[in-house]
Amino acid sequence: MLEIESTSKFKYPEHFPPEDFWIQPGIVNDGLAEFTELVDARKGEKVIDEYLQKYRGLLAKFMNFTQFGHHGTWVIPQQQVRPPLTSEQRGLKPDYIVGGKGSDGYKWFVVELKGADQNIFTERNGNVVFSNAVNDGICQLLNYVDYCSSAQSYLRDTLRLNDFREPEGCLIVGRESELLDDPRKQSLKAAWNRLSGGRLQIRTYDAFIRSTGSSWSVEKNG
């Protein structure tokens, strides 16, 4: 059995994913107050990404909404999963790959960020449609998730991402205030998450902050 209560005595298990990406339970709330200020100021993708690379524990805590990672969480920034194929065809490098180990084994997510300054929806010819930022993020996630699913053995064996199978995708973008006074937008966002079966979700930064405020439990694992 593995005890994580005392990190000073903790011996990292050899069968875990690389220790460089492991998130120690005691640091998951570091940086939350300043991150909330960045979101309230509607900072763009670059500023938010740079901050989360310093405080990766916030991303681990955010994934609480999936109810995974009670036995360990790993956050891998800017990992190239496919090199460039030609001078015109770029490689694939997701913003983050996030993994969690729970009682049922490992679960992996590909996370794409857009800015808190971006809208989720826009109106065109009287219809509510996804904004350019969200369309771009969804297409990026589809590429990442599809390729990661086809390259499972490489990600498991070369990058040591244990039990890596078909990952799920999560796009973090915008503010909840955009949806509050418009039932059409609320319904469309809920419909997307429902019809995608949770495999490619859209979450606001407000939802991110709420998830980081939920309880974090660390269990023994073997």
Supply the number of helical segments: 8
Structural class designation: alpha/beta
Estimate the mean pLDDT confidence.
84
Tell me the total number of β-strands: 7
**Cα radius of gyration in angstroms:** 18 Å
First-to-last CA distance: 5 Å
Instruction: State the helical fraction.
Output: 25-40%
How are the strands ordered across the major sheet? 1-2-3-6-7
- Percent of sequence in beta strands: 15-25%
How are helices and strands ordered from N to C?
Answer: HHHEEEEEHHEHHEH
Low-confidence stretches: 1-7, 216-222
What is the CATH architecture descriptor? 3-Layer(aba) Sandwich
CATH level-1 class: Alpha Beta
Coarse morphology: globular
- CATH domain fold name: Restriction Endonuclease
Organism: Providencia rettgeri
Domain Shedu protein SduA C-terminal: 45-208
InterPro entries: SduA_C
Protein name: DUF4263 domain-containing protein
Describe the protein:
The protein has 222 residues and is α/β, with parallel strands linked by helices. It has one domain (31-81, 90-212): Restriction Endonuclease, CATH 3.40.91. Helices cover 34% and strands 17% of the residues. The protein contains eight helices and seven strands. It has helices spanning 32-40, 45-54, 57-62, 132-150, 152-157, 177-180, 183-195, 205-212; strands at residues 73-77, 96-102, 105-113, 121-124, 127-130, 168-172, 200-203. It has a five-stranded mixed sheet. Strands 4-5 form a two-stranded antiparallel ribbon. Strand 4 (121-124) and strand 5 form a beta hairpin. The longest helix is centred in the middle third of the chain and has 19 residues, at 132-150. The radius of gyration is 18 Å and the shape is globular. 33% of the residues are buried. Residues 1-7 and 216-222 have low confidence and may be disordered.
